[in-house]
Amino acid sequence: MVKLKNVRKVYNKTTVIDEMDLEIDKGKFVVLIGPSGCGKTTTLKMINRLIEPTSGSIFIDGEEITKVNPVLLRRKIGYVIQQIGLFPNMTIAQNIEVVPRLLKWPSEKRKKRTRELLELVGMDPDEYINRYPSELSGGQQQRIGVLRALAVEPPLILMDEPFGALDPITRETLQDEVKKIQKKLNKTVVFVTHDMDEALKMADIIVIMKDGKIIQMDSPEELLANPANDFVAEFIGKHRLKTDTELQTVEDVMKPNVVTVLKSKGTAESISLMRQKNVDSLIVTDDNGRLEGVVTIDKIRELGKTGKDISGLVERGVPVVKTDAEAKTAFDMLITGRLGFVIAVDDEGRVKGIVTKTSMVKALADIVWKGNENG
Ligand SMILES: Nc1ncnc2c1ncn2[C@@H]1O[C@H](COP(=O)(O)OP(=O)(O)OP(=O)(O)O)[C@@H](O)[C@H]1O
Ligand SMILES: [Mg+2]
């Protein structure tokens, strides 16, 4: 589907992409990962011709891209840029329809497509099409960024750290959604991230880059089992946990930074906190930091009365686990549970963190990795 051959990019005598060869098969989810400045964004931008290589060639479906009309090229390629990049003065519908408009789709067809797309990510079209980006939560804006890239059904989608700024719950949900869409529509995705956990979860193939070069390109399993060199080992190793997996507790696998709100707070204040923290849900506590439940932006919008506190909107049946319980307990709850997270509390019931599927992948990675090291 995509092929880079001897691609170099030089800026003022500095080589930022060095003789890169890369082949990506149709329908694969390929993740580029590496330290800041290693050339991930540059690679994506060369694929859709926002940047021209200094030398070498890039092919899409066997055609050299410099020979393809750029409009036709962009029709084949969806692009989610490193910041969300919605146009603030355009409505959600207008944002999604940027490329369909460029391609002169008739208005009926555009409208139909926009509705389909919003439904794909569970956002009610009637409620959202006429809103502006500032009237959406961070997670919802991020979804629109993804939908915009999907609008004309391109076979190839480039995503540059699309979930960088999101909280764990929203990030987890969006990862699941994107993966599901990619499989369902059989798209080829090139996805950039800094986050090894995200790479391990999402990728069919992981491409580890450093200083403009590909260091290793393999499936997650292969990468964990046989890192090509010390750099790769260390890159994965940063994500290692305790040595003895038996003794891992919930505390070892949870993410400690969660956004909480007191149940006595008002609906308006909660929404503004969600905006500020880029989240779609908040963990609700009492005055002593003890868990009450979760409140979501949808619930507030649906049932919230201005001037009222959120206590009546709290969903209480959320899965809870003690921080000192075995990590496996939380994993079992995640696998069998309806929600993508489990909240970790101390003996007093105070909120300490959250366990997500990403935390689980992290722990599994460690087991594979350790297994290899112990021979
Ligand atoms: N227009 C430019 N002129 C000169 N140097 C540039 C230009 N754009 C990028 N670079 C350099 O090229 C290198 C690769 O940049 P690139 O944006 O591809 O990195 P990245 O891997 O995406 O990093 P990050 O993870 O921080 O987004 C960096 O050293 C950067 O400073
Ligand atoms: Mg970048």
Automatic annotation (TrEMBL):
**One of the record's GO cellular component terms:** plasma membrane
Secretion signal, residue range per the UniProt entry: none
Write down the chemical reaction(s) this protein catalyses: a quaternary ammonium(out) + ATP + H2O = a quaternary ammonium(in) + ADP + phosphate + H(+)
Which Gene Ontology BP annotations are present? amino acid transport; glycine betaine transport
Q: Does this UniProt record's set of keywords contain Membrane?
A: yes
Q: Which UniProt keywords apply?
A: ATP-binding, CBS domain, Cell inner membrane, Cell membrane, Membrane, Nucleotide-binding, Repeat, Transport
Q: Name one GO molecular function term.
A: ATP hydrolysis activity
**Pfam families noted in UniProt:** ABC_tran, CBS
Where are the annotated coiled coils located?
A: none
Q: Show where the ABC transporter domain sits.
A: 2-236
Tell me which family the UniProt entry assigns to this protein: Belongs to the ABC transporter superfamily.
Subunit and partners:
The complex is probably composed of two ATP-binding proteins, two transmembrane proteins and a solute-binding protein.
What this protein is called in its record is Quaternary amine transport ATP-binding protein
This chain's source organism reads Anaerobacterium chartisolvens
Source taxonomy lineage? Bacteria, Bacillati, Bacillota, Clostridia, Eubacteriales
